Amino acid sequence: MKIIFDVLHLYYLPQYLPVYHQLLKSNAGSAIFVFYRGIHDDIINSIIAQESLDYIWVDNEQQAVEFYQKEKADWVVFANSFPHLSLVHQVSQSVQLGHGIGPKASYYTKSDTATSVRFVEGQYRTDRFNAMYPDDNFVNVGFCKLDPIINGETQGFKLDELGLAPEKKTLLYAPTFYPSSIECFPKNWPEQFSHYNILLKPHYFSLSKEKYYQQRSLLEHWQTYPNVYLAKVSDYSLVPFLTSADLMISDASSALFEFAALNKPVIWCDFLKLRWSYRGIFSYRFKKRMDQDYGEYAEIAVHAKNYQQLAHLVEQQIANPKQLETTRLAYAEKLAGNLDGNASVRIVDYLVSHRKR
Q1: What's the rounded Cα separation, in Å, for the pair 228 and 218?
Q2: Is the whole-model pTM more than 0.85?
């Protein structure tokens, strides 16, 4: 069996690699990774070497689809929608394997154009997809990105090698790029949390896209504090950050739900920097951007209405990490599906048993 992974963005890899490793482990077939040229090609080349990936480079989606038509793989895996699926389907079956489990409505609308199968995290979301797209194919497998953590294959960071203090508790601040809380944090906030290590893991776009230069300026300033480690673009995977942290601070980010699914305490920042086009009479645009279950999902975390509440909540949750354990565990299956560490196994088993040749 031959599989192609479409890596439009570097942050898709943490979702793809557990499936790739299971493919090799089970001797089920081979894989090719399609990378899109950009500003971080050197970093991608180092990952290719580290993971011993078979790969090609393309400049755009048109070149990618030309390769797919020529290669005629059994499956082509996408993390998002793809505009040329009709051409792909002339020669291959397609997969959508989403890279996150966050609360944004786009999680569902990415299936407006149907792949041959979309792998889904949990029965609740599978049922919602079936109701929205009754003619399409959705399979509940779980969230394979967490498999390496659940199976003990990821050890996390050696904090001293990051210049941090292993004896301190570690906070993970993992905001999304929009709508984000980054601009609402004061410039000296790491100083106010000097008795903690702070791992900063912003969204890839905050580090790489020019339009988020103000976020990047703040992040780079916070990096100057001795208790802070700012993820580099080469730290493309959230997995070691999830493993290493004792508590997460985030906003409307998929990372928040992944951390909570591991039954670790989360502080959800309700204070966000919204563009004027999302405020006041235009606030409906923000609500439209979020999933209908946004409010219900919020129960898995304690909420900071403003930055001034944050320090108290951090102390409270570090002292009482099991406070919301019952709620987190109740929502874990709804958010991420079966957390038995075998999501990748189920995915590969499906691909093998449903190949057309």
Answers
A1: 13
A2: yes
Kindly give the interhelix angle for 123-132 and 325-336, rounded to the nearest 10 degrees: 40
The Cβ of residue 319 has, within 10 Å, a number of other Cβ atoms equal to 8
Crossing angle of helices 41-51/13-25, nearest 10°?
20
- The residue type found at 129 is F
Residues 6+ apart with CB under 8 A from 4: 31, 32, 33, 34, 67, 68, 71, 73, 75, 76, 77, 92
Eight-class DSSP state of 165: -
Beta-carbon contacts of residue 86 (< 8 Å; ≥ 6 apart): none
pLDDT, one tens digit per residue, over 94-119 is 999 987 776 555 666 677 789 999 99
Residue 200, burial from CB neighbour count under 10 angstroms (0-12, 13-18, 19+): buried
**Predicted confidence (pLDDT) per residue in 145-159, tens digit:** 999 999 999 889 999
- Contacts (Cβ under 8 Å, ≥6 apart) of 121: 98, 101, 140, 141, 142, 143, 335, 336, 337, 343
CB 164 within 8 A of CB 227: yes
Q: Confirm if 36 and 230 have CB atoms less than 8 A apart.
A: no
Strands (E) in the chain, as ranges, are: 2-7, 30-36, 55-58, 75-78, 93-97, 117-120, 138-140, 170-173, 197-200, 228-230, 247-250, 266-269, 302-304
d(CA 4, CA 76): 5
Phi, psi of 258 (to 5 degrees): -65, -40
Residues contacting 343, CB < 8 A, separation 6+: 18, 121, 141, 142, 143, 144, 146, 147, 337
Q: 229 near 163, Cβ under 8 Å?
A: yes
Of 203, 173, 176, give the one whose Cα is nearest residue 190: 173
Domains of the chain (ranges, CATH numbers): 2-150+341-353 (3.40.50.2000), 159-335 (3.40.50.2000)
Return the structure tokens found at 305.
């209405």
Q: Under 8 Å CB-to-CB from 195, ≥6 apart: which residues?
A: 168
> Would you state the pLDDT for residue 278?
43
Task: Find all residues with CB under 8 Å of 97, minimum gap 6, and list them.
Answer: 15, 16, 19, 77, 78, 79, 118, 119, 144, 347
Q: What is the DSSP letter of 35?
A: E
